[in-house]
């Protein structure tokens, strides 16, 4: 795949397939994880401080992602021995923000050739030509890309937002709704827009007592935090 230029994957595309060596053995992505949500994320390099803080945060949240039926898969342009040594250092030596002895249980892809990083548009030469930027791909159980985030090398990701996006996507799918700005479980959700003049009129007349309409095209309803948690198996 030398010098191959790939179109960057987009929201709605099927996740590009690849085979790779990881710290948990060989994987075929995304097919090995079909039926689960997947977060595929890249980081610039092993043994660097921002990346270490991110790995410790992801590792500390492993059970939360398990409960959400989500497989984490990391990647950097480093070799297997470097990955293993770095993860051992994190476990054995690093204490940060109250986290210590953290075991990274998710696979970390070896991508010395940058094949996978190029396939997913993780190499952005204006930022770095030999290291991946901080990309995050949210991929659904049918292997479709649903959300993409990119951060530069110098800025660590917001893991609360990563979890919020995963829960948000699952809520959209499970309840057939849209979600307003800054939505969190328990907040009101947006019902699909009125599809006829009759529905618009009845909504504005307040005929559905479970709905609150700010105008005919902007109606919300309550889904409790408990309902979201029950459905998502949190
Ligand atoms: C870091 O993870 O600390 C880092 C990596 C590459 C460039 C800058 C910071």
Structure report:
Disulfide bonds join 213-219. One of its GO terms (molecular function) is thioredoxin peroxidase activity. Thiol-specific peroxidase that catalyzes the reduction of hydrogen peroxide and organic hydroperoxides to water and alcohols, respectively. Plays a role in cell protection against oxidative stress by detoxifying peroxides. Its EC number is 1.11.1.24. Keywords: Antioxidant, Cytoplasm, Disulfide bond, Oxidoreductase, Peroxidase, Redox-active center. This protein has 234 residues and is α+β, with helices and mostly antiparallel strands. It has two domains: 13-157, 3-Layer(aba) Sandwich (Glutaredoxin), CATH 3.40.30; 176-232, Antioxidant, Horf6, Chain A, domain2 (Antioxidant, Horf6, Chain A, domain 2), CATH 3.30.1020. 30% of the residues lie in helices and 21% in strands. It has a five-stranded mixed sheet. A three-stranded antiparallel sheet has the order 8-10-9, with no helix packed on it. Strands 1-2 form a two-stranded antiparallel ribbon. The longest helix is centred in the last third of the chain and has 17 residues, at 159-175. It starts with 17 loop residues before the first strand and ends with a helix. The structure holds benzoic acid (BEZ). Benzoic acid is lined by residues 44-45, 48-51, 153-154.
């Amino acid at each position: 795949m030398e010098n191959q230029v790939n179109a960057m994957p987009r929201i709605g595309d099927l996740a590009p397939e690849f085979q790779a060596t990881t710290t948990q053995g060989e994987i075929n992505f995304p097919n090995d994880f079909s039926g689960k949500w997947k977060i595929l994320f890249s980081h610039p390099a092993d043994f660097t401080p921002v990346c270490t803080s991110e790995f410790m945060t992801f590792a500390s949240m492993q059970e939360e992602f398990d409960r959400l039926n989500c497989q984490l898969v990391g990647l950097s342009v480093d070799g297997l021995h470097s990955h293993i040594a770095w993860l051992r250092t994190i476990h054995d030596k690093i204490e940060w923000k109250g986290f210590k002895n953290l075991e990274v249980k998710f696979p970390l892809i070896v991508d010395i050739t940058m094949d996978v990083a190029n396939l997913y548009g993780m190499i952005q030469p204006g930022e770095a030509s030999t290291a991946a930027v901080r990309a995050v791909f949210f991929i659904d159980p049918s292997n479709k890309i649903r959300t993409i985030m990119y951060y530069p090398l110098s800025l660590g990701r917001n893991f609360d937002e990563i979890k919020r996006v995963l829960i948000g996507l699952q809520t959209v799918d499970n309840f057939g709704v849209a979600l307003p700005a800054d939505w969190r479980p328990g907040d009101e959700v947006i019902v699909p827009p009125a599809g006829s003049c009759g529905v618009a009129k009845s909504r504005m007349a307040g005929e559905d007592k479970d709905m609150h309409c700010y105008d005919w095209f902007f109606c919300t309803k309550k889904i409790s935090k408990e309902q979201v948690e029950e459905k998502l198996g949190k």
